[in-house]
Design goal:
15 helices, disordered N terminus, five-stranded mixed beta sheet
Length: 323
């Protein structure tokens, strides 16, 4: 670094000597590397850390210009990643394993939810106290039949008294009694209560099926060619999530402008509700977003048992944790 006193001396000399050398020109700003991150849903707290990395400048600090692409129901993020349509995208752990079993090469970099927020929701007036009771009590459940956890339930529970219907969105249990539906426990229960309905929700993870969820993934070839860039993206995302968990206020305001269908109070409540699903004893010992080979192997074994996948998948190929 140049001596500050010497710099002052040069400036003074320039005032009194027309032959004094001109000050060095300011260095040109380093260009930021553009990257695209595709979400599988609208801007909501489950993606808060990604937006916080934009709002708080974490991407820029890492030398990145990140574009976040909102998604919607049915957005084929795993396929988009495998095809190279986007650089980075959000998938679930079981989606990633399923695609790899079919020859697709996508790799997890960062797992937001250590405990999956997937759950089942029903009216509180049914006095249901456990997932097992909910699934073995006569009634109707609205869910996507192809979801891996449905196969898991069929293995664990007696679903003979349960009428299964397709999930069509919204809050269908409000239209009748003894009805349950799939949900994210950080979202639909809050919306239902806001509408004046008392509800009970149960985490799928309580049954032993707990894939990493809201997983930042990348195409394997891209990772191998741009390892440093992937490390930079992961570091920026980690910083973004640390900032969002500490104070979500500013980022929620930005996301709400992009998704005005969710009010400020629900944004705040959802951001608070998800903290315990993101921060665990494991992440406190390691870091937010970290993953283990044991967790991936457990998921692979379950998907093989339920015949969701038939081809072998190597757990160590499913993820990396660049720091």
């Amino acid at each position: 670094m140049r001596n500050p006193l010497a710099r002052i001396g040069l400036l003074v000399a320039a005032l009194f000597c027309s032959h004094a050398p001109a000050a060095d020109p300011a260095p040109a700003a380093k260009a930021l590397t553009p990257v695209k991150i595709a979400l599988d849903w609208k801007p909501e707290p489950e993606f808060g850390g990604f937006y916080a990395a934009q709002v708080n400048g974490d991407f820029a600090i890492a030398g990145l210009e990140a574009t976040i692409l909102p998604g919607g129901s049915g957005t084929p993020i795993p396929q988009m990643l495998a095809a190279g349509t986007v650089d980075f995208g959000i998938v679930s752990g079981d989606q990633l394993v399923n695609l790899r079993s079919k020859g697709g090469d996508i790799v997890a970099l960062f797992a937001v939810y250590q405990t999956s927020p997937q759950g089942l929701l029903t009216g509180a007036d049914r006095n249901i106290t456990s997932l097992k009771q909910l699934l073995e009590t006569p009634g109707t459940v609205a869910w996507e039949a192809g979801l891996p956890y449905v196969a898991h339930f069929k293995k664990l529970y007696n679903l003979s008294q349960l009428k299964q219907v397709p999930y069509t969105g919204g809050l269908p249990f409000l239209n009748g009694t003894n009805v349950a539906q799939q949900c994210f426990v950080t979202s639909e229960p809050l919306l239902a209560e806001k509408q004046g309905h008392k509800v009970s929700s149960f985490l799928i993870a309580e049954s032993g099926y707990n894939p990493y969820t809201t997983v930042l993934a990348v195409r394997g070839e891209y990772l191998r060619q741009h390892a440093d860039l992937c490390r930079a993206v992961t570091a920026a995302v980690r910083a973004g999530w640390q900032g969002y968990l500490a104070d979500a206020t500013k980022t929620n305001e930005v996301m709400r402008k992009l998704n005005p269908s969710m009010d400020a109070a629900t944004f705040a409540a959802s951001a608070e509700a998800q903290k315990k699903l993101i921060e665990t004893e494991e992440t406190k010992a390691d870091s937010i977003g970290s993953m283990t080979e044991t967790r991936w192997q457990t998921l692979i074994d379950q998907l093989k048992e339920y015949k969701v996948i038939t081809a072998p998948v190597k757990a160590s190929d499913c993820f990396v944790s660049p720091k």
